Amino acid sequence: MTSTSRPDPADQPHHTRRTTLAFTDPSGRRRTAAAVFGPENRRDPLLPHRIRNGVLERPERSERSEKREDLQDLQDLQERRKAGGGGHRCVQVRLSAPEAVVPAARALLDTEVGTALHLHRVFDGTPYAQHFPAIIGHELDTAEPYVLYEAPRGRPAARTHVISATDQRVIARDLMLAICLLEGQGLVPRGISPATVLWDGTAVQLWGLEAVDRVGRARGRWGRAPYCSPEQRLGEGTVDPRDAVWSAAQVLYQLVTGRPGRTDGAPADLGEHRMLAETLRGAFTPRASDRPSPARLLELLAPGEARRAQLGVPSEEPPGHAAAFEHALLLKRQAPPTEAAGAGPPAQGEVLCPYCLETIRLDLGELYETDSRMQYQRMDPSRHLHNSRVLADVMRVAVQKCTADPGFPDHYIPVPYLTNGRPLTVAMVGQSTTGKSHLLTQMIAEITDGGLEPFGLKWQSVNPEQHARFVRERVQPLRNGRVLEHTGGIGDGFARFVESLLITDAGGQVRPVAFFDLGGEDLVRTDSALRFLLGVDAMVFVVDPALALPLPHLDHARERWGLEVNRDGDLAFGTVLDRLPKNGAYLDVAAAMVLGKADLLRFHPPVDRWLAEPPATRLDPARTRRESRDVHGLLRQHAGQAWLRPFDTIRRCTLHVASATGGQEDHGRFPPGTRPRRVLEPLLSLFAMHGLLDVPGGPEALAVGTEPALEAVPRQEAGRTARGGKGQRDE
């Protein structure tokens, strides 16, 4: 579905355009290069992406690329440029500014770049790299995003008219090899067509990376008949590597016969073409489940090649990190239960004021309502006692003046906050640069958009006027692409109240949920701060990847924001954890760690896999543990143990990736608008830990995993059992 070969711009001097590009190369380092581009065309009439050939003239290092390996990378690029006759031939795939504001167009370009970087990471330096486009660099967080490739090798099959019997077999082998290699990475190329299969006389190069999808995903409609399989054309079932087998067989049939095949089965003249009939007869079956696998076909075409390919591809799984995570969970499961410490929560009927952090209870003598000028006026609910419906409506919008702290500025608490039981307090923890405000705003926005409904939860505003103001001042500007100021409002310098909602669970139980932003850097040991921490129910620790991860592709963000990597962890984490009451091996507050600004890492494993996951409709403890394990491994490998202190200190703590905006800001705005991803998952885990959500195995299974059969058996007894042949235990 993608065209990759265009006239050389050097042959069209009147249509060339010179420009200077700044982009990120596959190693994550910034590059600058002068470039000359020829005329651009639509890559495909049905797609918004544009393509143009060009020459990179002058690659340079960025300001921070001072390391020896950077210089070597630059010299390698210059050598390739010299070999190309004075310039590095390239292809640019881009979106114009009007097209880039369309989320679907951005998503396709993100998919393409993510796949290209994944293939570079896995196959660069191996013989298999030749079968895929070679990425030079990309620049996506801009008004006109693009990706640069080395010039395509060969001609599209659509323009190849004569092919020998020997070449037929080589092309079939290379196509099946490419499909097998992608399947080994959990990927399926859905866009195989005569336009995306290139042949240079010796090997196939497979383009169309924007159409790659993950195995097991729901099929989306993609491609043109007859090259897309019947199930893919209709968008039925789930993505299967055998979808690509159908497409490859159709391309080969056209190469051999010069005409397209049938859209619903094997061509009538298949038996007349020996290579097709002997190796690909089953590939034309309409249903994927009835087709041979790509590995089986590759074995017919090149015996042993599938196994060699499998053994020749390195694993991306960091060594030892999964075991470290499982051992940490084991220690948590084996730790004795933690008893409550400190003064405990407020007494029955009392709640913590979200502003002054003093305890209050409902006082019918201190109720107020707003008049037409939005001024608070005293109200007397007794005049509505004769009409229960009117009284309920009046109390729904009424507020109570809090007088618990006479020295605190005047503040008012919505009555529903005081009359629906003890609120569940959720505190966001992290330094001011972590993006807590954006993340919390998007969490609440997702809730109010119905994001909890698939899980059996419903929401209602605690106070309609306050919620409308929050939407007007926070949600709408962020969704329109504006960068928010830091969270403000009345509150203690340490804990600032942001918003509250009424959450109704599947059993009809209503509970207020209050969201706070903790300024951990400024926490002092005041009575109100300690009282708040004694009553806090759940915490979200937000990790800023620019502070935590010394990865090269984050250098550009650090340079823009004036940040440096901090190997000692987030100061706010330590400040809050040191103040929490502790009685036992672990803190007993429910917690979630969130690797925020995950769009910065959207092409880095394992974040790339989790950001590409479709939204969940049920909470799966096994899936949550896999995500926790992956994030734990990433932080352990690159950031160090200091950044994992919340997980190590708190017994019930899950780990997540999330992006509040989907991209980086440019001059106070997010160019394509905001695209939140996975912002609700941390909150869902906290709700499950507090019983608002039912999960298989219960809240404990979600947070610390399930207990294997012999886990609790004393070591000596386990050893005797194993020696007696009745059980086994890994020491």
From TrEMBL:
UniProt-annotated stretches for the region Disordered: 1-74, 707-731
Domain of life: Bacteria
Entry-linked InterPro entries: Kinase-like_dom_sf
Composition skew (Basic and acidic residues), residue ranges: 55-74
This protein's name: Protein kinase domain-containing protein
Organism: Streptomyces pacificus
